[in-house]
Automatic annotation (TrEMBL):
InterPro entries: Cro/C1-type_HTH, Cupin_2, Lambda_DNA-bd_dom_sf, RmlC-like_jellyroll, RmlC_Cupin_sf, TransReg_Diox_bact_type. Residues 23-77 form the HTH cro/C1-type domain. Transmembrane segments: none annotated. This is XRE family transcriptional regulator. One of its GO terms (cellular component) is cytosol. Pfam families: Cupin_2, HTH_31. Residues 96-118 are annotated as: Disordered. It comes from the Bacteria. It comes from Promicromonospora soli. Keywords: DNA-binding. GO terms for molecular function: DNA binding; DNA-binding transcription factor activity. CDD domains: cupin_XRE_C, HTH_XRE.
């Protein structure tokens, strides 16, 4: 679910603001108005304005629509919304992350700053037993359970996975996950990054 942000009280306010600025820059680079982006994504003009000003956080599904319209991926937008490493260090601090809301009231956050690399690591958290919509994309993906018990649905085949369990699935595999027992879970997800056409 998309969420409104209060930068004064939300510790992720700065990362949300960075993500909003990145979306605004990409939109302007492509010569799109907010109204055009709203029409293309099915999101409201006023909500996207709040996103660009760092006053609202996109859900993962909304971020997917925005990223697709702007010719990128939600993972790249999240990593490019992550704070640059201070002093050139490769360390990303928990307080420097960029995040979006994942289905079931959880979050997804980038675990690496912007950069050219063959994969994007992310952390997904949640508590909902409702799996939400299926995802399918052009990249291979690996998932590792850090804590909690999750239910992994791969094209209708269900697997209960717990701490230390992992799974790998190929591009195009419909997938989704949820809490296996209503308790919190945390997943490390590593998604392949495909080369994008420059033009």
């Amino acid at each position: 679910m998309d969420a409104l942000i209060d930068e004064d009280t939300d510790p992720l306010g700065r990362s949300v603001a960075r993500l909003g600025r990145k979306i605004r820059a990409l939109r302007r680079d492509q010569g799109l108005t907010l109204v055009q982006l709203a029409e293309a994504t099915g999101l409201s003009h006023s909500f996207l304005s709040q996103v660009e000003r760092g006053r609202a956080r996109l859900s993962m599904s909304s971020l997917f629509r925005v990223a697709t319209t702007l010719g990128t991926t939600q993972q790249i937008l999240l990593t490019e919304g992550t704070a640059p490493a201070a002093g050139g260090t490769p360390v990303v601090r928990r307080t420097d992350d960029a995040s979006a809301a994942s289905p079931g009231g959880g979050t997804v956050r980038a675990l690496a700053p912007a950069g050219d690399r063959p994969f994007d690591p992310m952390e997904f958290t949640g508590t909902s037993r409702e799996p939400g919509p299926y995802w399918a994309h052009d990249e291979d993906e690996f998932v590792y359970v850090v804590e909690g018990d999750a239910l992994l649905d791969l094209d209708g085949t269900l697997e209960r996975i717990g701490p230390g369990d992992s799974a790998f699935y190929r591009a195009g595999t419909r997938h989704r996950w949820s809490s296996a027992d209503g308790g919190p879970y945390r997943l490390l997800v590593v998604k392949q990054r495909l080369a994008r056409d420059a033009g």
